[in-house]
Every structure is written in C-alpha cells, then in structure tokens.
Design brief:
The chain is an alpha/beta fold. The chain has 3 domains: 165 residues, Beta-Lactamase; 165 residues, Rossmann fold, CATH 3.40.50.300; 128 residues, Helicase, Ruva Protein, domain 3 (Orthogonal Bundle). The protein has 20 helices and 15 strands. The strands form 4 sheets. A 6-stranded antiparallel beta sheet has the order 3-2-1-6-5-4, sandwiched between helices. The chain has a 5-stranded parallel beta sheet with strand order 8-9-12-7-13. α1 packs antiparallel against α2 and α2 crosses α19.
Length: 503
Amino acid sequence: MKLSGTVDTAKLNALIEINTLINSNYSDINALLAHILQSAMHLVEGEASSLLLVDSGKKILRFEVALGPKGIEAKKFVVKMDEGIAGWVVNNNRSLIVNDVENDPRFNPEVQKSTGYKTRNMLAVPMRVKDECIGVIEILNKKTGARFLLEDLEVLEVLANQAAIAYQNARYLKKTRDEIVVLQDQIATDRGYHTLIASSPIILEKLDIIERVSKADSSVLILGESGVGKELFAEQLHLKSDRCNGPFVRVNCAALPEGLLESELFGHVKGAFTDAISDRKGRFEMADNGTIFLDEIGDLPLSLQSKLLRVIQNRSFEKVGSSETVTVNVRIVAATNRDIEKLVEEQKFRSDLYYRLNVLPLYIPPLRQRIDDIPDLADFFMKKFRREVKKDFLGFSENAMTAILSYSWPGNIRELENTIERACVIGKPPYIREEDLLLNIRTMPDNNEGDKSLKSVLNLFKKHYIQKILAENDWNQTVASQVLDIQRTYLSRLIKELEIKEK
C-alpha cells in the first residue's frame, strides 16, 4: 500500500524495524502479538490497544492481547461478530477511523462500562490472510486528545497486513515444532519406551536416586499407587544402566493365569504340556544381559515365588518340563501397588523374597502430592492427542487449568491422560475448557495432603505459566511482561515471590 502524504523518517524506520521483528523466527504467538500491539501504539501514539482474533466456529471475536490501563479486564470479554466496531470491521473487511465513538451507532459500550476505561476515538484495522479477515487491531485514544488521521490508519494497515502473515507463520511454526516433539516421542514409544515428564522436586529427587543406583545390578522394588507411572521409572533404571543396549522385558504378573505364568516367565520344552508343541523361551531368558520388569509382583502366586527367589539368588532356573538348568545375566526390577508388607504378614508373600527384591526400594508418590508436574503432563497429553484427533488446540483455558490443578486425581497419571484425551475429543479449539474435562466435583480432594487452598493452586498456576513464558522468550523479562500484560516491576516481584528459576 502506498502511504498518503509523507511519512517522517523516524516513523518509517520504526515501521521497518517492526517488519523485521514480526517476520523473525518467532515461536511464541502471544509474544509476537504483544510486540505488534506495543509497536502499533508507539507508531500512531495511542494510549491503549487490543488485538481480537476471529473464532468463526462460535462467531465471536476474543481478546487475544490487550494493552493499556484496563487491558487485563478487557481480556475477559468476547465480542459477537455482529456487534461493535470490531464486528463491523470483520464483516465488511474494511478499516475505520472513529474520532467520536459515543456518537457512532456501531460502538458497543459494554466493555467500557465494565472496565471503566473511557474510549474517545479509535482506529480499527482488519488483519488479513489471503483477503480473509482473521482478526482486528484496535488503537484507542490518540495521546494529547488529538484526532486520528488517515496517515495513522494507513501505517496501521501496513503493519496489520504484515502482522497477519507473521501470526499465521508463527502458528504453523509452533504446530510443526509440537508435531516434531510428538513424533520424537512416538519413535521412543516404537522402541518400547515412554516419555517421562518431571518438574516437581520430589520426582527430580527420585530420578537422582535412579541415576545413582542404575549402574548396580541389585534388585529394585518400585512402590506406588496404580497409575503413578512405575513402569516409566523402571525404564529409566534400564536406560541409565550399563544394560541399556540389552533387552528390557516387561511382565504383568496379574494379567496372566497362574497356569501360564510359569511357562511365560521361565519357558518350556516341547511336550511339557498338551499345547507345548515346541520349545519356547521364557521372559527371563529373553531378558538375558538386560532388565526384566515384573509389574504387579504382589499378585505373583506363592507357588512361583520360591522359583523366583532362586533366580534372584543364583541367576538360574529350569524350563517347564526340563531338568536342564538355564543361567541368565539379568537385573530384576519389580513393582506393585499393593501393601506388600501386609501381604508378608498375612503369609501371602514370602518374606525372604520380599527382602531380596527390596534391596533398593523406590516409592513413587501419587499425582496429588506432585502437582508441579500436572501442567507439564497436561500439556504433553494435549499435544499428543490433538494430533490424533486433528484439532488445533493451543492449550487450556485458565478455568480448565485451575480445575486440573485442584482435582485429586485418584487414578493418577493414567486418569489425567484419559481425561485430556476425552477433552480433546469433545472440545473445540482453540482452548480446552473446564467443561470439556468432565471432572466429577465430588471427587475433589478433601484430605490434608499438601496445601490445597485456592490461593496455593492459583500461585502454582501462575508460577508454571510465568516460567513457560519466560523460557519461550529467553528469560527476557521486558518481553515476557508484555506478553503477560503486566508491568516489568510486577513481573520481577512475582519471580522472587514464587521462586521462579531458570530451568
């Protein structure tokens, strides 16, 4: 677009600088939008600004970024596509200069009434991609009480067109990077391993223990509730050990009938029983020079416990139907969600086997005791399932994340994963909402495990979100404060109060 009149050198240089900025390799969309608005306000000398994005499915415009005295309050609102000056701009795909908003019939005073911020005049410019309006940039109240000029509008139009393309590129970049992460995780999954997400100090401590004991060959007993991820910690033990290039063999002791379990563990020879039509290796033999993971060891029948004890002591056993001794070099990692000491007292589990398995005990706490991990886990599952359901979710609404952090998660990580998958299936982009989670309020925590006050949960959400924004912007507090729509001094205070540290 050719600008009318003459643009002064300073303004033209600023426009060039903005153009370079918004077309740089930006991976954080909100940071990009905040830069655009901040620069737009500077260029046309406005007091406040907002960027509204079109949600065509709901036929609304939502405040993605709002800067100025009442920016935070403004972001709570949505605008219908057929209301207000922004709605008119979208429907007509045209720019507007309104220097007397109170006498303009298109002006909707609802936001003004609620925020208390009085709008005198306004620029409203469409953000276009391939002639389609995807959003609106608004600049409010020319400084010194002056009127907005055609020159201001034209400069803003140039910026808005470039910003729209940059915004789309940023979204595609973010989507591509997220897909790469998912694919990397899929590669690991195809190898038989899972991604372990850990942010909480208590889990980082467990990983440190694993790091220290991984080189030993002593047996490890992993304890914890169902769904806490005991198998993932067993995988870490194997991957950090000198056996990492050997096999990692999994056995669920509760999933196999007692009559088949011995053959599954130790193998059999041809003719050992009716269906033994050929020799077969057992899981212990398959795990030679590697690690065997015995999940749900508390459900192992007493009849097999003595044989397992011998394997631990001598690293040898006989296949079903054979008198020939098989020797293996294998590390045993066992896990259970049962009170195994109580099973020993009830003589349902051999005490000598328990003591041989419990050389290096490792207790994995439930999710309700490690809520620092919840936001990262939820984000990981959201990225995983949005690809599967082919929906472009950007994240969670504030209410949704607060609900996630407040819930007790009796089913632990497994329940969280299932909840996020369900939310991705039934929810609508761009954000997963609280109602998409379908969490039963009756299962909210009423125990005393940790501080579950609303203040504590909200502080945790703040800490995680601020840390995320800082990391995405190379820990530049000035940029991060713009993205968060808060003063830089306030951000510095929050960093100190919430003990936010660079990872």
